[in-house]
Amino acid sequence: MAIVDEQGRLFGRFNLLDALLILLIAGLVPLGYVSYVIFRTPLPRLTRVEPATINLDKVMRIKIRGEHLRPYMRVSVGTHQGVNFLFKDSSEADVELQGVPPGTYDVVLYDHTQERDRLPNAFTVAPSALPDAQLIVVGTFGNLTPDQARQVTAGMTIPGLGVVEAVGRPVPQVTRVFVRPGTVEVPIANAQMLPVTLRLGCYVRSSQGQPECVGGAVSIQPTTLMFLPTPLGTLPFQIDQVRGLQPLEPVRVTVRFSGNPGVLAQIKKGDADIGDVWNELAAGATVTDVAAANAGQRDVRLLVQAQRGTTSWTYGMSALRLGSAFQLRTAAYEVSGSVIELDPLPPSPNTASSPK
Amino acid sequence: MSLDTRNAGSRVAFLAIAAGGLLGFAYTLSPLTVLCLPVIGLLALRVGRDLGQRERQWFFALVIVAIVLRLSAIAGLFLWADDAQPYATFFGDEQLFKNRSMWMRNIGMGMPISPADIIYAVDDVGESSYLYVLAILQALVGAAPYGVHVLNTTFYAAAVLVLYRLVRPAFGGVASLAGLGLLLFLPSLFVWSISALKEPLYTLVAVGELWCALYVIRGKTWGRRVAAAAGLVVGALALDSVRRGGLSVAVLGAAGGLVLGVAVAGPRLLLAMAVTTPVIAALALSTPAVQERLLHLGRMSANYHIGHVVSLGYSYRLIEPRYYREIGGAVRMPPREVAAYAVKSVASYVVQPLPWKAESRAMLAYLPEQMLWLIVVALVPIGILAGLRRDPLLASLLAAHAGAVMMMVALTSGNIGTLIRHRGLALPYLAWLAGLGVCEFVRVMTAAPSPFSRSRSSHGHR
To answer: Of B353, B360, B365, which Cα lies nearest the Cα of B315?
Structure first.
């Protein structure tokens, strides 16, 4: 029997063209499978992040481990995009992170178009290697209506941050704006600001080697403007003075001021040191007595609200010792001198006790 | 029903299933290829339908070879892809279009993308309606990093075929085949036409706009003319959305072409125009507001030129060296220097890159095409004169559009690579005029009687 007969049938049974078509289609299946195996780009996968917890820093470097990683991929922690993706091989890459605040985040892997894999809650930025701290911060809530000002009372909590310890009297709103090299006061019409003392929680971080305390994502410093989530809504809060938790204690100080006799003649009993910014709740000093020493000199006795430090009294963020410099600033004048008497003297360092 | 009839029926069904299976297999591999290739095929059949046998053979040979070469190049790109990159590209700029259109698609479909990509997806730089076209298509057929090249091949081929259809009745078979060959096989146009850049879509929209401009006058009924006018407006806006400056090209090209075309058709009108145009131009140029506007335009163009010169790549300089050092200094450029810059920029548009200043192998490789470009430029005036005798309106529209694109590109260029790429925007207009120029040149050289002298215009094929 002929393989292909006169009617074009294979072995007398199948039409040759039909048989070829069947073979072609049957051949497409393995061809398709082989093509799929060869050309398929395997989906990338994350397996872990090292370290899983890292202390907050300006630049944080983490190692991503996974499968089928590619050089063009990217990683984010939460919504914070990694600065780079330093590809080592298909199972490992380094990623640098900047500006990621403390918290626990998903680690997300992207290719050139979309998200490909995610490790839920796999990475934590710890605020600091040190335990949380607290500071006393004197400042003003701003942009208040009279009604809002009345609602701010001692004991009001600021969720996640701290508590109001003391409240002063409302005054017209003036915001200090940083303008190099100093600050400019910007009055705001129809708004009040309210002096308050807050006990704020913060964590210590190293900023280029300098320790600073961070609360509400900002470094706590005089003039810093924060936006605090209060029960009255988010309120601007500008810092005037920052202190430790030690209580304020009255210290009698005698300061010998030198300078222009005309300026020194302005010093009189009852004058109050207002420091850089006046705030009725800020720790200050009051003149209790003035005596002429020599020509161009005045010995002035002051009652200072100081804090007991480990090595000395602290006033206005400076050490208060015999011989240390002292500035007296009022609305009318500013004079400089040095401390000549201190009562009581601070305890010696080896007998200093912890803050109460 | 007889046994034979039943067998025939089942065989047809079997073949249909087999064809469907093959088509599905191909569609799975590359949806855009399956969708685009029939478009080119159907369009080529439609355009070549009324051609004579010999001309039809040449026409299909050119089109088929051009498409096969392009598909081969795209397949090569696919096969040469590097694992370290998500996909291969012919040029670096293509990545912007491929990635950004995918980001836009993913945002539109609610698929999470990298936070940084969200910023780049909505960046003003590189904004073009072409990105939306790609995003929508990829939303419909899936990611198509290589299919985009086939799509652009289709855009470009469609534009060239439509143009061929438009010019063939007026310019004749040989001139049209010459233009077709130039547009399909000029190396730089070949490369741009298979790229993922926006040039192919721009060319297609520009051809649509030219078609509408032509039928504003040539429409057989008022309804068609109004429809063509509406199409002209839409086309001009679409052109501008693909590439900034497209609106100016469309307005100058359509207005200039229509006015010149109508004027050339009537000798009295032409005479009146020849007299009034210089007067109107002189009056306009003596008006302070016009002077100020032109000066501003010239200074802004010089700023663009500076930007191109100081960017990466090979460039050419046209103004005082101090302007390249001082950022924004061109805004104080005196009128005399602005005028000199305008003249030099047009001359540079034609002659750059200068052969004796070729600084790279790529530039040396381009020199043969540069020679061809100079020949095209030399033939265009001959083609315009011949075209004005054959079909004043079409020739005027082609010349005016080419002039508008050339001015736009010439005044803002400074980088040689970008100039070569953007010069390709004028070639779809110039190629046909150059083709006609060749025919006219050969005719004059051989002293053959002009086929145009007996009949002014023949709008039918053959």
So the answer is: B353
pLDDT number for residue A354: 45
Amino acid letter, B300: M
Q: What is the pTM of this model?
A: 0.72
A108 interfacial to chain B (CB closer than 8 Å): yes
Which tens digits make up the pLDDT trace of B303-352?
888 888 888 888 888 888 888 887 777 888 888 999 999 999 999 999 98
Q: Write the ipTM.
A: 0.73
Whether A355 has a pLDDT exceeding 60, the answer reads no
- Cβ-based contacts of A28 with chain B (< 8 Å): 21-22, 25
Partner residues linked to A253 by β-bridges: A302, A342
CA–CA gap between residue A71 and residue A74 (Å, rounded):
9
Lowest mean pLDDT among A276-290, A309-323, B6-20, B415-429: B6-20
Report d(CA B403, CA B401) in Å as an integer. Answer: 5
For residue A17, pLDDT over 90 is answered with no
- Low-confidence winner among A232-246, B147-161, B322-336 (lowest mean pLDDT): B322-336
Report yes or no: B15 at the A interface, CB cutoff 8 Å. yes
Q: Which residue has the higher pLDDT, A27 or A120?
A: A120
Beta-strand relationship, A14-15 and A53-55: unpaired
Question: What mean pLDDT value characterizes chain A?
Answer: 87
| CA–CA distance, B180 with B48 (Å, rounded to integer) | 12
Query: In what helix (H) or strand (E) does residue B135 lie, and over which residues does it extend?
Result: helix B129-141
Q: Does A332 touch chain B (CB under 8 A)?
A: no
Q: How many angstroms away from the CA of A220 is the closest CA of chain B? A: 30
Write the residue in A18, A72, A113 that is nearest to B106 by C-beta: A113
Is the per-residue pLDDT at A352 higher than 60? no
Q: Among B18, B21, B102, whose Cβ lies nearest the Cβ of A113?
A: B102
Who's near B427: CB < 8 A, 6+ residues apart? B182, B183, B186, B189, B376
**What is the pairing mode between strands A14-15 and A9-10?**
antiparallel
Cis amide linkage into residue B321, ω under 30° from 0: no
Is A112 within 8 Å of B102 when comparing Cβ atoms? Answer: yes
Cβ-based neighbour number of residue B193 at 10 Å: 27
What pLDDT is stored for residue B459 in this prediction? Answer: 43
Q: Using 50, 70 and 90 to split pLDDT, how confident is the model at A29? A: confident
pLDDT in tens, A129-150: 777 788 999 999 998 998 999 9
- Contacting B residues, span 79-138, partner chain A, CB-CB under 8 Å: 83-86, 99, 102-103, 106, 111-117
Contacts of B342 (CB under 8 A, 6+ apart): B298, B301, B411
Which site among B96, B101, B114 would you substitute to test the A interface, given the most A Cβ atoms closer than 10 Å to its Cβ? B114
Chain position carrying tokens 């191909």: B26
**Phi first, then psi: what are they for A218, rounded to 5°?**
-130, 155
SS3 B378: helix
Alpha-carbon torsion (B197, B201, B204, B205), positive or negative: negative
Helix (H) or strand (E) segment spanning residue B316: none
Whether the per-residue pLDDT at B93 is higher than 90: the answer is no
Q: Locate tokens 């002014």: which residue?
A: B456
Residues of A in contact with B111 (CB under 8 A): 114-115
**What does residue A292 show for φ and ψ, rounded to 5 degrees?**
-75, 135
Residues A228, A139, A184: CA angle, nearest 5 degrees: 100
Position B267 scores a pLDDT of 79
Selecting from A28, A72, A114 the residue whose C-beta is nearest the C-beta of B106 gives A114
Q: How many CB atoms lie within 10 A of CB A153?
A: 10
- Beta strands A92-98 and A182-207 are unpaired
Inter-CA distances, B257 with A306, B50, B94, B210, B267, Å: 88, 28, 34, 10, 16
Structure-token match 């010439």, residue found:
B410
Using a CB-CB cut-off of 8 Å, the residues of chain B touching A108 are 112
